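ARCHIVE CARD
SHELF: 3
SLOT: left
DATA:
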Amino acid sequence: MLTISDMKDGDKYFVGTCTHVNDTPECLSRWEINYSAKRRIAWLQSLYPKRVRRKVARINHNPVGFIHLLPIEICPWVQLERIY
């Protein structure tokens, strides 16, 4: 069964590694992935006051994907002049 919910503390490693939890990387070492994950999580947490949120998709309680939700006011891909 597929469920989607807010990111919880237990999801940080999954989101921080961009789902590269158990793979064997060809270009990066496990140390580089783990180091980057810590920095990515700190960065994502710093965006929380700006209302940036993460949702995690699960199948049978196992994380399989995630999405970042950004308010349109801070979205770097949208030119607000075109909308208003």
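SLOT: right
DATA:
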Amino acid sequence: MYDFHLIVNPRSLRSSVRNSLYQNLLSYLKAQGWSYHLATSSSAEELTVLTRAALVSGARKILPIGGDGTLSLCARAFFAGAENRFPESLLVPMPFGTGHDFYQAWMRSVRSKSWNWLHPEMPSERISVGHYRDAGGQEGYVLNSLSLGISASILAARNALPLLQGHPLAYLLAAVRELMHYRSRPLQIEVAGDTPERRETLLFLVCKGPLVGGGMRFLSGIDPCASQAEAVWVPRLKASFVLRSLPKLYQGHVDQVGGVRHLSFEQLRIHRDSEELEVEIDGELVYLQGPLDLSILPSVLAMAKPYWGT
């Protein structure tokens, strides 16, 4: 039995800085005498397949070598519908993404590039996970964020810059472009037990983790372990107003921006006039068929915490 199973997304290691950090990780594991198994994916889908194979073989600690998207795809392997089939195994968030927002928030006590917090006896805490299903039967899971509107358009614009893939500049250029040109569209949200509401929408963002979009804190007090999720609903706004409001949004002062709604929910349904939904899920772009149902699975997935000794 290996101490750790590393599921590697090679796209995350194109950066020389992240590749150097990865080599340091391997050297640290060897120096400590801990056993590990490496599995390298050739596609996003294979990240889930390789993780499931590791779990079936008895893996207890999965280290996704990537960012939020990689972490999310590895987490998918734990589940069948709303059930975690491997409740005794745990995920270890790692700092190998462009933003790796979940890692930044969850591992906030880690202050350096050293690996002294990593250990086979790491403690863990169970987080709640979003479970979505679209009209076509496609389902998946949300660890950190799910959003529609300008956020998804920014990702689409970023993906259209292949020469800058993996570079923070690609996201910045795409964000500036979309802030100036994005046109808000109607969106209907139905929180379970409430009357459906429809409004012209710039952004609808479900926050499962405290940080999104490379360090933005849209809402304060977000707890990944909570049984409810929090959402920000931003209506159609002028680009100039959005730019002036960014500092408040970035720091989590949503209540100070006029017209912005804050929702808490356990279940909701998302409608849009067109059947196809362009959705950001944990930093990756996904195309789904509306309507989209999202529910929160409470305390369902064990997530490793830093080990600081006994």
